[in-house]
Specification:
Layout lengths: L2 H4 L7 E3 L8 E3 L9 E4 L12 H6 L4 E4 L11 E4 L3 H12 L8 E6 L4 H14 L4 E4 L3 E4 L2 E4 L7 H13 L4 E5 L2 H5 L10 E4 L7 H4 L2 H13 L6 E5 L5 H4 L6 E6 L6 E9 L2 E6 L2 E5 L4 H16 L4 H8 L10 E4 L5 E5 L4 H15 L5 E5 L9 H11 L3 E4 L9 H9 L4 H4 L2 E3 L3 H11 L5 E5 L6 E4 L2 E4 L2 H9 L2
Parallel strand pairs: 2-3, 3-4, 4-5, 6-10, 6-11, 7-10, 11-12, 12-13, 13-14, 18-22, 19-20, 19-22, 20-21
Antiparallel strand pairs: 1-5, 7-8, 8-9, 14-15, 15-16, 17-18, 23-24
Helix pairs in contact: 3-5, 4-10, 10-11, 12-13, 13-14, 16-17
């Protein structure tokens, strides 16, 4: 593809060299550059791509996109200067990969909790309708039924556009994508055309990156600010930031709620550890999902499907056949009459949601035992808050290790314990070894009890000192249960 075609969505401030240069690929990592590539020099949070221009040219880059003045250009290399390469890289990538979102219907899901469930259930639902569908999620990316390992909630813009182009090539008609606050702020989804967006909820998370809750909120809001008037926006009326998200949104706005009057309304009629009987907009439907938070997720799914032209009754029929997402409120039963729930809950709000649902199901007929930790090298401020939520809504609490990364596990545990009162400490123990913590919970449990193992969900590893060691909460629970 000619460089002029790759640049069709951006406005160069300066060009030194030929725009007729043939481009064989686009890269923002100088180590991956191959002959004929366009290297995009992006100023990231850790490094500045401009310092690697010489390296990229050495490896064969035939063109370079920069945001700094062009100095000492090398003959035979085309230099293009734009105002902001971080903004431009997504637009360049989408042009190089043939504007994939012109050829499939893309829906984005953003919020603190519920993104994975909402996006994955939409993927399952539309496959249930017989469509070929793509998915970009924390757990796994899919090109129809082909899994592609996910390393980030939302990939970098070049990887993302390549993935979307592969979906188009495979005949996918729809794609559903989790849009993290990092990806929105870093413009990884720049240049993509969204047919719609769903807002789940907003609570404290990623403040190590965003610094303030307002910055975090505004990153999410920017996604809805960018939707076109032809798109739809579905927002959670039960969240105090639900209407903030869409206040500058040009798209057609629809609301959902489990408590108030909204266009999409849902309530729980019956609930057990296996699922719920719901009323959604006046129709009863049985689903294999549990918890009020999942009613909200399913309302977002239902609203998006209807907005995309599906018959409401058919949507509910297919929803009733779907299963929970890996590591999201997954129940494992012990032969001894108690159960464990595996859930990815790793924020105070997520713990509150999951434990509230468990307590509503147990309803005083058994004890709730919570095993939880917090990740290392992330927002330290949420650690004591997570311990408080666990203690408030559990009969017994075991504080343990999650992904310590480059921190000492005991230090993270101590940060969590610092949030507990003397009364809370009477029902709390700390076991740094996660395997032993799960075994201990299983030994404590009696018939009718429910154990929540929170924090890792779908992850099959423990991240310690930069090494991912195999560790799967599902496997550990089954071993502790002797099944």
């Amino acid at each position: 593809m000619k460089l002029s075609d790759v640049l069709k969505h951006v406005s160069p401030l300066e060009v030194n060299g030929s725009l007729d240069t043939e481009i064989t690929g686009v890269n923002m990592d100088s180590r991956l550059v191959e002959a004929g590539n366009l290297f995009v020099a992006v100023k990231g949070t850790q490094t500045d791509g401009h310092t690697y221009i010489a390296k990229a040219i050495e490896l064969g880059a035939s063109a370079v996109l920069v945001s700094e003045p062009i100095e000492n250009p090398i003959e035979g290399v085309t230099y293009v200067r734009v105002a902001d390469t971080e903004d431009a890289v997504g637009k360049v990538a989408t042009a190089f990969y043939g504007d994939p979102t012109d050829h499939l219907t893309l829906v984005g899901v953003t919020g603190t909790n519920g993104k994975t469930t909402t996006a994955t259930v939409l993927y399952q639902l539309f496959r249930g309708f017989g469509h070929k569908v793509g998915l970009c999620s924390t757990v796994c990316n899919y090109i129809d039924d082909q899994p592609i390992e996910a390393t980030h909630t939302t990939p970098d813009p070049i990887t993302l556009n390549k993935l979307l182009a592969e979906m188009v090539a495979a005949g996918c008609e729809y794609a559903f994508m989790e849009c993290s606050s990092h990806s929105i702020h870093q413009k990884r989804i720049g240049g993509l055309k969204f047919a719609g967006g769903i807002f789940t909820n907003l609570t404290r998370d990623h403040l190590d990156y965003h610094k303030t809750f307002e910055n975090y909120r505004d990153a999410k809001k920017a996604f809805f600010d960018g939707l076109s008037k032809d798109a739809f926006a579905i927002t959670n009326l039960d969240d105090k930031n639900g209407m903030v998200m869409v206040q500058n949104c040009a798209a057609k706005v629809s609301t959902y709620s489990t408590r108030a009057m909204a266009a999409l309304r849902g309530k729980i009629i019956e609930e057990s550890i296996e699922g719920m009987l719901l009323d959604i907009n006046g129709t009863e439907v049985s689903v294999a999902f549990v918890g009020r938070f999942n009613v909200s997720n399913l309302l977002g799914v239902y609203g998006a499907a209807v907005a995309l032209g599906k018959d409401p009754q058919e949507v509910l029929r297919v929803l009733s056949t779907l299963k929970p997402v890996n590591g999201r409120f997954e129940a494992i039963r012990s032969p001894k009459g108690f159960s464990a729930i595996v859930d990815y809950a790793h924020t105070p709000d997520a713990l509150e949601n999951v434990l509230t649902s468990i307590n509503e199901i147990v309803n005083g007929r058994g004890q709730v035992i919570t095993v939880c930790g917090a990740g290392g090298n992330r927002d330290k401020g949420k650690r004591p808050l997570m311990a408080q939520e666990a203690a408030k809504r559990s009969d017994r609490v075991i504080i343990t290790s999650d992904n310590p990364r480059f921190e000492e596990p005991q230090d993270i545990v101590n940060d969590m314990l610092a949030g507990l009162t003397e009364e809370d400490m009477k029902k709390t123990i700390a076991i740094v070894d996660r395997r032993e913590a799960i075994r201990c919970a299983a030994m404590m449990a009696q018939p009718g009890d429910v154990i929540l193992v929170a924090g890792k969900g779908h992850e099959p590893y423990q991240d310690v000192k930069g090494v991912k060691h195999h560790f799967d909460d599902h496997e550990e629970i089954r071993a502790a249960f002797g099944i």
